[in-house]
TrEMBL record:
Site (Transition state stabilizer): 62
Catalytic activity from the UniProt record: 2 a phenolic donor + H2O2 = 2 a phenolic radical donor + 2 H2O
Stretch forming the signal peptide: 1-24
UniProt cross-references to SUPFAM superfamilies, sorted A to Z: Heme-dependent peroxidases
Source organism: Citrus x changshan-huyou
Stated role: Removal of H(2)O(2), oxidation of toxic reductants, biosynthesis and degradation of lignin, suberization, auxin catabolism, response to environmental stresses such as wounding, pathogen attack and oxidative stress. These functions might be dependent on each isozyme/isoform in each plant tissue.
Protein name in the entry: Peroxidase
Domain annotation Plant heme peroxidase family profile: ranges: 25-327
């Protein structure tokens, strides 16, 4: 190679490196030029949806958590299965993710595609919708850096063992978060998400029925609460949609009552009780139960971190035209 050719190669290499760098840089105002009404469209969409379907905030927060934990916040959870591919959302644990969460993302994407075609990623939409909905129901605001891209892979087979289940021992739950560099304290703060939303009876029926010993339920429950749950879920086998609020004291408000419930035996899931009964997690439950401000600060920090977990930028991903299918 001659000297001028070498110089040209170096120039081309440096240029493409710089383009890549610029492409992969995240920023809060990423869409300010390419889609100036991005924030307004997001706000309008989530406000309309949350007012007509108040379960949307909790639904979307859980959807986002399940998307991020599995290989990053790349909207792989939104893809529908095809005859050739069973997608993440059809893994058993994800079957209870509510339709309202998917719907709010579809609505936002449709509105954004009309204004600025092929510009805003589904992953950014999901991250911002989650933050805006959490804030709308009283939770803390946090920054969401934008510029995520969407992926082309979504496999149900990858899910098993990577998302926490209420029946898992606390060590296994801690481990799932630790593998993704989330500390025990961050895990406890994120679990404060259970201050909103609900759980289906089958998620905790094993803890309230069929105990041969007295009491006839898991002794971590407050007795009156356990009896109320037994009644509320009595028909759950015939009617699998039966469900109970995660935070019975203030189910629709994002606050710290979830933590205050736990020492009183008013936690709903076995894993909720576990947070108070395990010496590694208990101090943080007590801290957040005492001090809502501390909880909000920790939750906001952990959500900002979760929102960046495993994201794809630049050429490592694409902008999907539809959020539920590869195009
Ligand atoms: C620590 C381990 C966790 C376990 C074992 C767990 C498990 C569960 C289960 C079984 C449900 C009930 C689902 C249903 O019946 O529809 C649920 C609901 C929920 N989870 Fe978790 N979760 C955990 C952590 C988290 C985290 C970290 C977040 C978010 C940052 C979160 C957000 C939610 C929300 C918002 C709901 C209510 C969903 C709705 O109302 O539709 N969870 N969780």
């Amino acid at each position: 190679m001659t000297k001028p050719q070498q110089a040209l190669c170096i120039l081309i290499f440096s240029f493409s490196f710089l383009v890549n760098l610029a492409e992969s840089r995240l920023s809060i105002d990423y869409y300010s030029k390419s889609c100036p009404r991005f924030n307004q469209i997001m706000q309008d969409t989530i406000t309309n949806k949350q007012i007509t379907s108040p379960t949307t905030a909790a639904a979307t927060l859980r959807l986002f958590f399940h998307d991020c934990l599995l290989n990053g916040c790349d909207s792989s959870i939104l893809i529908t299965s095809t005859p050739f591919n069973k997608a993440e959302r059809d893994a058993d644990i994800n079957l209870s993710l509510p339709g309202d969460a998917f719907d709010v993302i579809t609505r936002a994407k449709t509105a954004l595609e009309l204004q600025c075609p092929n510009t805003v990623s589904c992953s950014d939409i999901l991250a911002v919708a989650t933050r805006d909905l959490v804030t709308m129901v009283g939770g803390p605001y946090y920054n969401v850096y934008l510029g995520r891209k969407d992926v082309r892979v979504s496999k149900a087979a990858d899910v098993e063992g990577n998302l926490p289940k209420p029946t898992m021992p606390m060590s296994q739950i801690i481990d799932i978060f630790a593998k993704r560099k989330f500390s025990v304290q961050e895990m406890v703060a994120l679990s404060g998400a259970h201050t909103i939303g609900f759980s289906h009876c089958n998620e905790f029926s094993g803890n309230i029925y069929n105990y041969s010993r007295i009491p006839h339920y898991d002794a971590h429950y407050n007795p009156r609460f356990a009896e109320a749950l037994q009644k509320a879920c009595a028909d759950y086998q015939k009617n699998p949609t039966l469900s109970v609020f995660n935070d019975i004291m203030s189910p629709n408000k994002f606050d710290n009552l979830y933590y205050q419930n736990l020492p009183k035996g008013l936690g709903l899931l076995e894993s909720d009780h576990g947070l108070f009964n395990d010496p590694r997690t208990k101090p943080y439950v007590e801290l957040y139960a005492r001090d809502q401000n501390e909880f909000f600060k920790a939750f906001a920090r952990a959500m900002e971190k979760l929102s960046l977990y495993g994201i794809k930028t630049g050429r490592r991903g694409e902008i999907r035209r539809r959020c539920d299918a590869f195009n």
